[in-house]
Structure formats: C-alpha cells, structure tokens
Amino acid sequence: MARSAESVHAVIKAYDVRGVVGELIDAAFVQDVGGAFARLVRDDGAKKVVVGHDMRASSPDLVKAFAHGVTAQGVDVVLIGLASTDQLYFASGLFDCPGAMFTASHNPAEYNGIKLCRAGAKPVGQETGLATIAAEVIEGVPEFDGAPGAVTDEDVLERYASFVRGLVNLADMRPLKVAVDAGNGMGGHTVPAVLEPMPVTLEPLFFELDGTFPNHEANPLDPANLVDLQDHVRKTGADIGLAFDGDADRCFVVDELGNPVSPSAVTALVAERELAKEPGATIIHNLITSRAVPELVTELGGSPVRTRVGHSFIKQQMAETGAVFGGEHSAHYYFRSFWGADSGMLAGLHVLAALGEQERPLSELMAKYERYAASGEINSTVADAAERTAAVVSAFADRTTGVDRLDGVTVDLAGRAWFNLRASNTEPLLRLNVEAPTAEDVDALVTEILGIVRS
C-alpha cells in the first residue's frame, strides 16, 4: 500500500527507523519495510536476512511482520531472538548476510525501531539504502512472483560471547568484582553469557528484561542514570562498574570510587592496547573526543584520524583507512576485528583486561588517560544556531589560534583549550563541548560562551 511521504520520513531517519508504535510504526508499516529491505539486499545477491530484537513488548510482533515482508520477496529469515545490537552485528558477520535489529535503544517504552545492516555488519543509512527503502514504502512495495523464503531460528548467544572474549587477552586477569547496571535492557541478556566464564564476581543491577524501564532510563550518557551504579559500586566494594544502554551497544565505566570514567579515557586505553598488538595502526576519534586521544596515539607511534560526530562517519573512515579501532565521546567503540562495527561489550572487556592484568585500582590506572578537564555536552535552545555560533566565534576572535568547520565550529585557544559548537540536525539546539587544562578553566569558558549563546 502507498503511504504519505511525511509519515514515512518521520520514522525512516538518517541512520535507522524509529518512532512511536501504534502511531507511525505498526505491523503493516514494518512489513513493508521488510519487503523493501529484502528487495534492496536481494539485488546485492543476499539469500537471507538475520533478525534480532530487544526486550520491548512490541518487538516480537514487529519482528514477525518484518519477517513476513522479507520472505514474501523470496529471501530467507534467520531469527536469533533476544539480542543486543552488537550481538546482531556478530550474527550478520557470522552468517555473512544482512541484518535487522529491532530496538529503540534508550527511548521510552512506547518507541521501537530498526537498525539495518548489510552483510558483514556494514551500516545502512540514508545514502546507502534507507532513502531507497523509504521511496518504495511510500510508493508501495512491488510484489514478488517467485517462491517465498523460509524462516528458521538460530541461537547465537554463546557463540557471540565466546567470540568477543576471544578478541581480548584475558589470560592474565586477576579476580575482579564487577558491578553492572543493565538498566533493564539487553545487557541483562548478554553480560552473564560473556562474563560468567571469566574470573569475575558479578554484582548485577537491573538485569530483569523490561522494556518499560521501571528503574531509570537506559541511557548512561545522562549522569542521572549512573547514580544507581555509582552507589552499587561503593556499596558492594566492586573494582569497577559497567553501565549499558537499552540495546547494550554502548558501555560506560565507573571506577572503584564510584566516579565516572570518560569515554575519551576508555578510547585512549583501548587504542593503546590495540596499538600494542599492531604498532603504527590507524585509530579513529571524533572531534568531540579529548585531545588526549590523538596525543597518546601519536606518542605511541600510531596514526590518529579525526572525524565528524556520528557512527556513519566513523564506520566510513574505519573502512577507508583500515583503522584497527575507533572511539566516540558517546561511548560507541568500533573494532576492525568486529567487522568495523561497534561493541560496548568488547570495549568493556578491554577495560576489564587492563585492570585485571595489574594491581592498581581503576582510578589510578585511568589517571594517565585523563589529561584534561571537560564540560561534557551542554545543550541550549536557540532560535538561530548559525547566528549564535557566529557571535561566539566573533567574541573569541582575538584569542583564537585556529578555527575549523569539520562539524559545527571548533575553536582552538592557544593549543591548550578548545571548544566546539554544533547545531542539532533535528531540534533547535546548539551543542557545546569545552576542554581545557583545569576544571576552573572549563567553567570559565562555559560561563562565557553560554552567556553569548543564551543572550
């Protein structure tokens, strides 16, 4: 059936499909997306599509509708059931076939969505297939006159767990007490499978799979959602805390004191470990990541490559440069050994291995990677992002040693401090990130910049 362009483009976005179930996303719509996706990958020669889903109540019925759309186009479906997003990527690599993950990550319970990939976990975005899918859903997906595909079930959890453990040297680990906040998301499914065979005492928090998120939003990027884990680490005397988002593709770290470890520091640590295995390798980092990352990579003889913010840019650069690893400030971590896809679990294993192969506590281990103070991302609602950005750049003109516009505007201040202003693509927001040698320097810059942005 044909659909309005407005309704389709409201949910088929730049990187995925996402919206409120029962409004713009329902079984009939998802069936059409499945059919259009099957036609897209069938043209690539794909014979089957692997499909996983998170713990949301709407996921099983949507998966069934999607599978019907795929098989109606003569393409087989392999259902892996409950899965994290990186478990779906693993299945796409394992079976060398396209994949679809049903999740809305950390969005509220009424949402659901689909993350699509080609064989080998290669991403599908607007320019690589989503625009084509949207166009067919709008016009009506053509019928297929051949035999329908078949649906089979395949459990890949243990193979996934074994695979990610095998990518990290865990042989020298001392026993660790590890607190994990799954946020009622898919970490409650994958963490036991991955960690229980290791020398780890697991201190679980909110492992019950519940798509209503009864305890807190499954978005550890918001400091408010780390409070429970911080308390749990202190209460249990854990050596480390790990927090996962709803679909468990992002991993955040808390040290033994209950203090958050910046994703930039995790990026630097993993980069050091990967460079030890492959000296001179390329490491990707986005422009919001701490300057400590490219500094460390350069000091270790590696090649740092700076990109725009967003997984599509990271994955593109990973493929083009052959980079061994890439990290983002949002706690997405990408590995060449994992088909260039992101895996928070794999990053978490690297941190556990680094902690466990020496005797210092995590706070001391990570100190070498925390070279600067940072503001984190601060959002301001503005009427004209371009005008406010120009006003800030003008105000700093006499102190600026460099300005670039790779993604928004990044202003360098004498090589020691810097800030970035980026407009949101979807909301009237201007996003500010500041880094400087001290917290006092950061606070002063944030106060000055926000005074201009919000005036």
UniProtKB/TrEMBL annotation:
Residues 377-450 form the Alpha-D-phosphohexomutase C-terminal domain. Keywords: Isomerase, Magnesium, Metal-binding, Phosphoprotein. InterPro entries: A-D-PHexomutase_a/b/a-I (IPR005844), A-D-PHexomutase_a/b/a-I/II/III (IPR016055), A-D-PHexomutase_a/b/a-II (IPR005845), A-D-PHexomutase_a/b/a-III (IPR005846), A-D-PHexomutase_C (IPR005843), A-D-PHexomutase_C_sf (IPR036900), Alpha-D-phosphohexomutase_SF (IPR005841). GO terms for molecular function: intramolecular phosphotransferase activity; metal ion binding. Residues 12-135, 160-258, 265-372 form the Alpha-D-phosphohexomutase alpha/beta/alpha domain. GO terms for biological process: carbohydrate metabolic process. Its cofactor is Mg(2+). Belongs to the phosphohexose mutase family. This is Phosphomannomutase/phosphoglucomutase. It comes from Rhodococcus oxybenzonivorans. The lineage of its organism: Bacteria, Bacillati, Actinomycetota, Actinomycetes, Mycobacteriales.
